Amino acid sequence: MSFSSEVKAEIAADIPSAKHCRTASAAVLLACVGRFERDADGKYRLFLSQDNREALRKCFTLVCKTSNIRNVVCSPAGTGSREPRGWLHADLSSDTVRDLAQMIRACDSVGNLRENDECTVPAELLGRSCCRRNYLRDLFLCCGSVSDPRKEYHLEWSCGSKEQASQLKEILLSFGKEAKDVIRKKVNVVYFKDSEDIVDLLNLMGAPISMMEMENQRILKELRNSVNRRVNCETANIGKTVSASRKQISDIRYLEESGILRTLPESLRKMAELRLQYPDTPLRELGDLAVPPIGKSGVNHRLRRLTEIAEKYRSDSRSGKQASGAGLEKRPDSAVKESV
What we know:
This protein is of the alpha+beta class. The chain has 13 helices and 8 strands. The chain has a 4-stranded antiparallel beta sheet with strand order 1-2-4-3.
């Protein structure tokens, strides 16, 4: 079972105890999966879509608990009905259907059915906060979906009309949640992509088990990402250290083979010997090994100075100058010492 199916199963099992909440829930479900009809003889009929079985079962339960109906028996819609295939005809009396329609404000006091092609719910049924929560819950049961939090964060309602999408956004805004919307294949989609918003919505819709599962997955994902970032950072730092160490050793060996190293000040010679002896040691630890110990900045300065000297003699050598001692003749040891 997918995560979205688990959320819907949890939502479908929650039946409100208050009558006004049950009425609001029944209005939402019947607006999505039900159609009221009045024939030429003035008789009322109710048709139900069988595409969403969970919503249909909850609708039956709510209708029976809210009205005096004990059971709802359905049969396939007849050929004379306006409803397409896949719809069921509820075998209820005309008066019962009319009372049900009046209860959810689909019918006025004189028996005129309200045109509800936009699949909205009358605002007077959604005045209470608890009723609006039931609206979100049961509308999600009819046309909602949520992605597996192990893969991505995405929760949406595929609304049946622009008016239904607008009503949904208003209700979400009443809870401080500003949703985004888009038209996808001529369907009005209201959605969230932020993990905190989705967790709050699961809580609002009364799905605590799914909410805790998502929270656990979110914590694991954040922990995994944090560990990966730290590992990547450490790996990059190690790579930089190794690369810099190789360059320093190459420069020191060049100075040693050219006979230049022995002409340098003692502080630079000692640092060059330490680097050759400990090629993979970080700068701070290398400074601790020096006698007397020096700080990381001091080690870095001396190694950088060795590199500069090596680069200078390489440049002189490429330009045809004698690198064996010309550079040091122009710059005596005292000057080199002053720069260390």
